Amino acid sequence: MAPHALARRARRPGRLPPTPPRPPGPGPSDDRVHLLDGGARGEKQVDGEDCFVLRLDVGPSTLSSWSDGTAEVIRHGLTGFFSQRSGLLARLEDSQLTRIQAPGAPAMYWETTIASTLGDYRAADGAGGVHVAHAGRSTAYLARFGVGVRAARVVTRMEETWTIDDVAFDVPGLGPDAFIPPEEVRRSRFYDAMAAGGK
User: Per residue in 163-194, pLDDT tens?
Assistant: First the structure.
C-alpha cells in the first residue's frame, strides 16, 4: 500500500463522506491508496504532525475466509494517520480479534494490536519517485482473555525500533515476491538452516 496518497471516491448512500483530497506532496500523481470500505475518521496529531485519519475494516466474507474449525477472526481493521502537510503515512495501527475454541474446551480470545510510527522518508531507487519510510518504531500488544484465564486479561507487550538501510525496486532476476534479507541476517545460522530447507 503506497503510504503517501489518497483518492477521492463518490459518496454512496449509507457510507461515510469521501476521503479528503490528496495533499500536495512527493510522489507520482497516479500513486494512490484506494480504500474501498474505508472512510475518513477525523483528524489527530501524531508526533506534532497534523494528520487526517482513515479507517479500513475487513469485510465479513474475508473474515470468514480467514477462519477455520477452531479459530474465528471476529474483526480486523487498519487505521492510518496521514500527514496533512506531506500526505505521507505517519502512523499505522493494525488490530485483530480472534476467538479460538478447541472441541470440548472453553473459548479463548486473542486480541493483537500493532502500532507503528514511520519516518525518515526517502525516494526509493527505481521506484519512480515513490518515497519509503526508512525508520520507525512498532509496538505490539497481544492480549488473551476468556474462561480459565486467571487475570481478567493477560497482556504481552513488545516494542521494536527499526531502520531500513536500502530499498530497491525492479531488481533484475528477482520476482515480485522476492526479498533479500540484510547481510547480518544472511550470515546467521538460522538463515543458513532455512535456506537449506529448514533442517
Answer: 988 777 767 777 766 766 666 666 666 556 66
Find how far residue 64's CA is from the centre of its chain: 20
Average pLDDT on 96-102 reads 91
Neighbour tally for 89: CB within 10 Å = 27
Give ∠ CA 121-41-11 in degrees, rounded to 5: 105
DSSP characters for 133-165?
EEEEEEEEEEEEEETT-SSS-EEEEEEEEEE--
Q: Which residue has the cell 479528503?
A: 20
Cβ neighbours of 58 (radius 10 Å): 16
Q: Is the CB of residue 154 less than 8 Å from the CB of residue 141?
A: no
The phi and psi torsions of 192 (rounded to 5 degrees) equal -60, -40
User: Dihedral of the CA atoms 26, 29, 34, 40 (nearest 10)?
Assistant: 60
Identify the helix (H) or strand (E) that includes residue 132: strand 131-146
Residue 81: is it exposed, middle or buried by C-beta count within 10 angstroms (0-12/13-18/19+)?
Answer: buried
In the chain, which ranges are continuous DSSP H helix? Answer: 60-66, 183-186, 189-195
Average of pLDDT values for 74-100? 93
N-term to C-term CA, the chain = 34
The total number of residues shown for the chain amounts to 199
CA dist., res. 67 & res. 62, Å (int): 9
